[in-house]
Design a protein that fits this description.
- With about 425 residues, the chain is α/β, with parallel strands linked by helices.
- Helices cover about 45% and strands about 10% of the residues.
- The chain has a 5-stranded mixed β-sheet with strand order 2-1-3-11-4. The protein has a 4-stranded mixed β-sheet with strand order 7-8-6-9. The protein has a two-stranded antiparallel sheet with strand order 5-10.
- Helix 2 packs antiparallel against helix 14, helix 10 packs across helix 18 and helix 17 packs antiparallel against helix 18.
- The longest helix has 17 residues.
- The chain starts with 7 loop residues before the first helix and ends with a helix.
């Protein structure tokens, strides 16, 4: 791996001698491997089945190089992942390694569940020297790093190029305002109405898409002191925008949208099922959607506003549990995941553009055509003037945002509450969650 390796006794000595007072290292777990000297780690992550297959390849590569370590992995969709983790935590069965989203880091730090990895970086168990400094910085909470950033991505839209042609329309311009997007998708729906195909999915409950909307208004989802950084009117106008698209037929009806329980998962997406033309998602998932799509897909930037709304988001972190008895092994796997050339090849761009500076050279000859499009999209966004750094990371309680937004957006979509009432309910409940 190109890094210094320590046995468990040395690791414990580092903890006791050089890390005195750092309660984030669960030193009580050191030296408690099985009688045979073998270690078993549990890894949990979210994502589609394609990610599971790629992750298994890296696990097998690591186990070949570390025959005394066995890694069992489990995966599920994004929303189920967090409720499952809550259950595991309540039962005292926290995975050794957890794929972590930046919006949940503060919550897990408050619960003292994540190892702060700076000591592991200083001792060279984890090597971050080849990782993009900006990506590392954007992964920190209160100036501390609680996981290894696995890659970066931008919010994007995918669209079905064949359905656009069949609608008799030209491909969309790369830069469209929100009004332009509403008009374009309305025309798509009108042209494809007899086939029951809508211009776009309803993403009024999409956390990342709403964040783009807010940032384009010169605001952030959160303030530096951990409060909501936008006004209730911003959310009401967001809901009103999607009400307008539903009324015009531009986006999927409430009933059709509800039939896709997890839009971010390719096999349940309305896009891969051929029911819509446009779908929102992160750029790193383009390849997995293309694999299941009926037609050729293309990447499109989110609608534009008066200010840049996109940013290079750390796609996931690989975090180590403070409850793990085998933190050194977990740290070595985290290091292997982002630095080993064979691991980089096995994972490709599934978790975003890898932070390792050498990764693109390693991948250039092997990545798929869809992954190349994802990479080209990233490079285009970086030159477009439509992105700016994210300066305020999510506070504790931010994990409730996406769950609450989905719930309220569905109530608005089905006409159970008005846009203004729904926005006020969300704002009140989210303020309490952050409180």
């Amino acid at each position: 791996m190109g890094t210094t390796s320590y046995n468990r006794r040395q690791f414990c000595q580092l903890g006791l001698g050089g890390l005195t007072g750092l309660s984030l290292l669960d030193l009580a777990g050191c030296g408690t491997s099985s009688a045979s000297g073998n270690t078993t780690l549990q890894l949990s992550f979210w994502g589609p089945s394609s990610r599971n297959q790629l992750t298994k390849k890296t696990i097998q590569l690591f186990q070949s190089a570390h025959p005394n370590v066995t890694i069992h992995s489990s995966f599920t969709d994004f929303n189920t992942y967090w409720s499952k983790l809550d259950t595991q935590i309540a039962g005292g069965n926290v995975p050794d390694l957890m794929q972590m989203d930046v919006s949940y880091v503060a919550q897990f730090v408050q619960q003292n569940l994540l190892v702060e990895i700076t000591p592991l970086v200083k001792s060279k168990v984890i090597d971050l020297s080849q990782l993009d400094p900006g990506l590392v910085e954007n992964s920190k909470f209160n100036g501390k790093l609680y996981g290894v950033p696995l890659g970066g991505n931008y919010e994007s839209m995918y669209y079905d190029t064949v359905l656009v042609q069949q609608a008799g329309m030209s491909p969309p311009p790369q830069l469209m305002t929100w009004d332009d997007f509403a008009n374009y998708t309305r025309e798509l729906s009108q042209a494809l109405k007899k086939r029951g195909i809508f211009g776009t999915s309803d993403t009024s409950g999409d956390y990342s898409n709403f964040e783009v909307w807010v940032r384009q208004r010169g605001k952030n989802l959160y303030t530096a002191d951990g409060k909501l950084g936008f006004e209730v009117t911003d959310l009401a106008e967001w809901f009103d925008y999607w009400i307008g698209l539903r009324k015009s037929g531009a986006c999927a009806s409430a009933a059709v949208q509800a039939s896709a329980p997890v839009p971010s998962v390719p096999n349940t997406s309305l896009l891969t099922l051929g029911k819509i033309v446009f779908e929102n998602n992160h750029s790193n998932q383009f390849s997995s959607f293309q694999q299941l799509a009926q037609h050729k897909l293309a990447l499109q930037m989110s609608p534009t506003g008066s200010k840049p709304g996109l940013y290079n988001k750390p796609s996931q972190l690989m975090s180590i549990s403070t409850k793990s008895k085998y933190q050194q092994d977990a740290a070595e796997f985290s290091n292997f995941f982002v630095n080993d050339p064979k691991s980089i090849q096995a994972l490709g761009l599934d978790r975003g553009i890898p932070g390792n500076k050498n990764a693109l050279n390693i991948l250039s000859a092997t990545i798929s055509a869809a992954d190349k499009e994802s990479l080209e999209y990233t490079q285009m966004v970086q030159k477009s003037g439509q992105s700016s750094p994210l300066t305020i990371l999510p506070p504790a309680g931010a994990g409730n945002f996406s769950i609450l937004l989905v719930k309220i957006s569905q109530q608005v979509a089905f006409g159970q509450v008005s846009a203004s009432a729904g926005a006020q309910t969300f704002y009140t409940n989210m303020t309490k969650a952050l409180g």
